[in-house]
Amino acid sequence: MGIGGRKQGVRRRQLGAVALGWCAATAWMAGCRAQPKLTAQQAEGQMLFHERCLHCHGENDLNLKPAPPEIRGVLLRAKLPDGEPATDLEVMRVVLNGKNKMPPFAGRFTEPQMQALLAFLRTRSD
Length: 126
Description:
Blueprint: H1 3-31, H2 40-52, H3 88-97, H4 111-121
């Protein structure tokens, strides 16, 4: 193969590598959805959700049947999974009093913690 043929082969490989890199970067960026930055209150609610709620409402590591509903972002919807209106008052009622298989959590959240949890449930964050 002559010098011109080698240069063309090298050039093709370089262009192929650039194209592959561009495709990979584009695919990676398409898969990344920037989460909105949480306020301090929402971040506290996220921490509380992960500590006290995700156990059942996400990971379901107790293998409950049927699995408890996914509730992240529940206050962005019109209705709760049980068909009740998605309001702060209704979510507080269910959390504090329990419902069906969900035990009551009365006395386990301070008022500021409950407000933080509600603030988190108004976001689309994980």
